[in-house]
Structures are given as C-alpha cells and as structure tokens.
Design goal:
Blueprint: E1 4-6, E2 12-14, H1 15-31, E3 36-41, H2 47-55, E4 59-65, H3 71-80, E5 90-91, E6 106-112, H4 121-133, E7 134-144, E8 146-147, H5 155-167, E9 174-175, H6 176-186, E10 188-196, E11 200-207
Parallel strand pairs: 3-4, 3-6, 4-5, 6-7, 8-9
Antiparallel strand pairs: 1-2, 7-11, 10-11
Helix pairs in contact: 1-2, 4-6
C-alpha cells in the first residue's frame, strides 16, 4: 500500500513512489517508442507521471484516479515542473464500462500499486478497459507486489499481504497467475515479466492477437 505523507510545501508525497520512479522509468525506456499517448490509472500523488513526463517529453500523459482528492497537488507538480505534455487529471473508475477519456487509442496504459489495495473486480475492469483502448502494438504496464506459483514469496511481502487483508478483506497481494487469467479473458496476454527492487514486478501486457 502506498503511504502518503505531506511534504514541507504541503504536497502529498509517497516515499515509495519517489524510490521506484527511476527504476520503472528505466524499464519503460526499453519498452516504449520515442513518442506516444499514455494513460495512467490510479495516479495517486502524481510523482510518477511528473517524472515520466519530464524524461519522456515526446509522450502525452493523461493521469486519472478514482477520486479527485490529490488532483490539486498533481496540478502543482505539473505547473512547477513546467510540463506541457501532461493533461489535467481526470476521474476514472476501472469498474465502469465507459471510461471518460473518450476512445482515443493509447500506446501505453500504466497502473502502479493498485491491484492489492482494490477489490478483486478492479483487476478484470482494468484488463477490459485496457483491451478496449490500447492502440495496435500498445502495452498495458502494471507494477507492484505479486504472489507467484513456484516462486518463493519474500517475508516482507507475506507480512504486507497479511496487513492488507487485516485492514480490508477485499485487499491483498494478487497471484500473478490469477491476474493472467483475467487478462486472458479480456484478450490480453503477459508479454514480459521484469523483476524490480523491493520484491515488486513490472508486468507488460499486450493484445493476444
């Protein structure tokens, strides 16, 4: 779960997002063409989108989240960094069959640290929405902790999973193979698996065809 604090200038701040934004960017650079359109699902504090937009300036970024609580902070980050390639954040519920960003194909749909702090139905919603909106050759990238068959789970992730489930029975670290089943049902397949720091995975999904 992403712990959010306030910085000295009172912007919401996630220490985890600050730590992992560069390792994630390094993988994205190996995956993405020079330019394109990106949609971020569950943008949180906006630290990721601001960092990626600054370092991938030919990409246009659309951050979204379930609530607008942190949208003012995101707008401050965008403004202070003078980012002209980030659109104002929008509300988006992955469980909705009609995402409010229209039907413009997306070259990248990016989602970090949501699946383990959302009801399981959100996984299917994310996969269905991505399958609808991905451009030809586009990718869905998900990042966070996962359980995996035949891969030992770290003690830290086991404790984290227990904490999540105690806090909310609808939460918990998801089994990668179960996520693959949801992707397959939506017409997506797991194309690449990247091991990341702190026992996280970055998974790349593409259309099955």
């Amino acid at each position: 779960m992403m712990e959010i604090a306030m910085t000295m200038n009172e912007l919401a701040f996630s220490a985890a997002a600050e730590r992992n934004k560069q390792p994630i960017l390094e993988v994205l650079r190996t995956l993405l063409p020079e330019e394109g359109h990106a949609l971020e699902i569950s943008c949180g504090t906006g630290q990721h989108v601001a960092w990626f937009a600054a370092h991938l300036p030919l990409w246009t970024w659309q951050p979204t989240d379930l609530t607008a609580d942190l949208f003012p902070d995101i707008m401050v980050r965008i403004t202070e960094a003078r980012l002209v390639n980030v659109q104002p954040p929008q509300l988006l519920n992955v469980l909705s069959d009609a995402w409010p960003i229209g039907h413009e194909p997306q070259d990248l749909i990016y989602n970090a640290n949501m699946l383990h702090i959302a009801p399981w139905a959100c996984c299917a919603g994310l996969m269905r929405g991505a399958a609808r909106l991905l451009a030809p050759g586009g990718r869905l990238v998900t990042y966070g902790p996962y359980l995996e068959d035949e891969v030992p789970t770290s003690e830290g992730n086991l404790k984290f999973d227990a904490t999540l489930r105690a806090q909310n029975p609808d939460w918990g670290i998801r089994r990668r193979e179960d996520v693959e089943d949801q992707a397959r049902a939506a017409g997506l397949r797991l194309a690449v698996r990247h091991s990341m720091p702190a026992n996280n995975l970055l998974l790349v999904w593409q259309r099955s065809d």
